[in-house]
Amino acid sequence: MSNAKRSNGGSWLSILANATLGAAARLVRARVTAQGLGSRDRYRLIVHSYEKTRGGVPCRAERPTASFQRTVTGAELKAGVRVELVETSARGGASPFLVAWVESGEANLEFDGRTAKPMRGSIYGLARGAVDDATTIHLNRSRAA
Fold first, then answer.
1. Can you tell me the distance from the alpha carbon of 122 to that of 32, in angstroms, rounded to the nearest whole number?
2. Of 32, 123, 141, which is closest to residue 76 (Cα–Cα)?
């Protein structure tokens, strides 16, 4: 892969981010997986990226620097769903902290899920993101009901 392609992430999303937001943006890639979900059932997948954490989880008042949502099936999650997030206020080269979760239902009309919070019973996963490579987030925890 050429340096030019590597520096812009090689995707239309990274090119758009660089063209519109410039140096204030960076692309974060992740692959989200989950086991044991109904293969045909539909879920709302939400992924947030944070700059700061306290004790391994984002502070309650912390707002995500990037977010993503889409409707997925259990079969897609078993195979792994690739996501790209454009962080708009990332500082330096610090690795982002990623939180992903699924809940029953479909993605709603809110564009990217930035204000979403995991509901009770949601299956979630946490990971420290890498700026240049995709990070795998395993949805293997459950928020108490």
1. 15
2. 32
pLDDT tens-digit profile of 86-141? 887 655 567 788 999 999 888 876 666 778 888 888 899 999 876 667 889 999 98
Look at the pTM and tell me if it is higher than 0.70.
Answer: yes
| Residue 141: partners with Cβ closer than 8 Å, 6 or more residues away | 123, 124, 125, 126
Query: What is the residue type of 28?
Result: V
- Torsion-angle region of residue 9: left (phi > 0), alpha (psi -120 to 50) or beta? left
Nearest to 128 by CA among 71, 60, 58: 58
Give the residue extent of every domain in the chain.
25-142
Domain 25-142, CATH: 2.60.40.2990
